[in-house]
UniProtKB/TrEMBL annotation:
Mg(2+) 4 binds at residues 31, 46, 76. Mg(2+) 3 binds at residues 31, 76, 209. ATP binds at residues 122-123, 147, 211. NCBIfam families: thiL. This is Thiamine-monophosphate kinase. Reaction mechanism of ThiL seems to utilize a direct, inline transfer of the gamma-phosphate of ATP to TMP rather than a phosphorylated enzyme intermediate.
Length: 325
């Protein structure tokens, strides 16, 4: 039997369950599941795992690791338009080094406190270093912002800037030699767009967080919304360091295919341009329009006015040849 990739595993072995609980509003297939107990508020749930050697270098600063383990989950809640409330922490540790654990906990709790998230449980075991966090949040007054829902004519927006974590990874691997603290910070301690995410429900027709690379993650919106899109490469928000990397290396694809940035990509009717600008202002979040949803399917990227093809895509467990780190 041919060996299945990450999404094939989810689809073939875990998606077809016969049980469909009446309170499940959104199940497998989006950034979070959403449980609906009352019409007024819904519970959004998500989980993500970080494995040493795959998702992070084993010698990563434990404070940053504690931060990142929670941050990647808060990012999924933000993409759903949910307010983060609770977390569960399942920790598998090779050894019980109290200094390492204290530093990890400090990074975790500092971020948790900033966003008023309470740790309510978890599990602790011995084994190869791996961290699983479950995060729970609430969505008021609507089902949450799904990957499905983008309409032809909608504008495509991106928070912050992309390619920074990809640049940080190349620096960390010694493959690019220009130092860039901002890029290393993004790779090891990404900031979830929680404050802006809570506002997404006011205007977004669809949304996702950019964890696997913009091309792959926007691709999920297009697929689940049955639409296509056009994006101008020149409109991508890039930091000065990422711009320099692209100029130095000629690797213009990196900002589109590198993962781990944890920005939000969302779509909205052009009628909401003012509402989006106000939410961006109120939460001090840079937001930029990068393209337009079209009829059809697939993502067309224009660079210097011409359509260009990507020769590689986002990272896929079981498909992308080797581990990242
Ligand atoms: P994200 O990148 O936003 O964390 P993923 O691409 O990891 O989302 O997962 C896609 C969807 O598949 C999500 O709804 C997730 O909850 C679900 N999923 C992933 N693995 C499993 C599994 N083993 N069993 C059930 N659902 C899964
Ligand atoms: Mg996600």
């Amino acid at each position: 039997m041919q060996r299945p990739g990450e999404f094939e595993i989810i689809r073939r072995f875990f998606s077809g369950q016969r049980v469909a609980d009446v309170n499940t509003e959104i199940g497998i297939g989006d950034d979070c599941a959403v449980l609906n107990f009352t019409a007024a508020a819904r519970l959004a749930l998500t989980t993500d795992t970080l494995v040493a050697g795959i998702h992070f270098f084993s010698d990563t600063d434990p404070t940053r690791l504690g931060h990142k383990a929670l941050a990647v989950n808060l990012s999924d809640l933000a993409a759903m338009g949910a307010r983060p409330r609770w977390a569960l922490l399942a920790l598998t540790l090779p050894e019980n080094d109290p200094e390492w654990i204290a530093a990890f906990a400090q990074g975790f709790f500092r971020l948790a406190e900033r966003h008023r998230v309470q740790l309510i449980g978890g599990d602790t075991t011995r084994g190869p270093l791996a961290i699983t966090v479950h995060a729970l949040g609430t969505v008021d007054g609507g089902p949450g912002v799904k990957r499905a829902g983008a309409k032809p004519g909608d504008a495509i927006y991106l928070t912050g800037s992309i390619g920074l974590a990809g640049l940080g990874l190349r620096i960390r691997q010694g493959a690019y030699l220009v130092p860039d603290e901002e890029a290393l910070d993004r790779l090891e301690a990404p900031q979830p767009r929680t404050d802006f995410g809570i506002r997404l429900g006011e205007f977004a027709s669809a949304g996702i967080d950019v964890s696997d690379g913009l091309a792959a993650d926007l691709g999920h919106i297009l697929e689940q919304s049955s639409v296509g899109a056009e994006v101008d490469w020149e409109s991508l928000p890039l930091s000065a360091g990422v711009g320099r990397y692209v100029a130095d290396s000629g690797d213009w694809q990196m900002p589109l295919v590198a993962g781990d940035d944890y920005e939000l990509c969302f779509t909205a009717s052009p009628a909401y341009a003012q509402a989006i600008a106000s939410a961006a202002d109120a939460t001090a979040t840079p937001v930029r329009r990068i393209g337009t949803i079209r009829t059809g399917s697939g993502l067309i990227i224009r660079r210097r006015g011409r359509p260009v093809e990507l020769s590689r895509s986002g990272y896929l467990h079981f498909v992308s040849g080797e581990a990242r780190r």
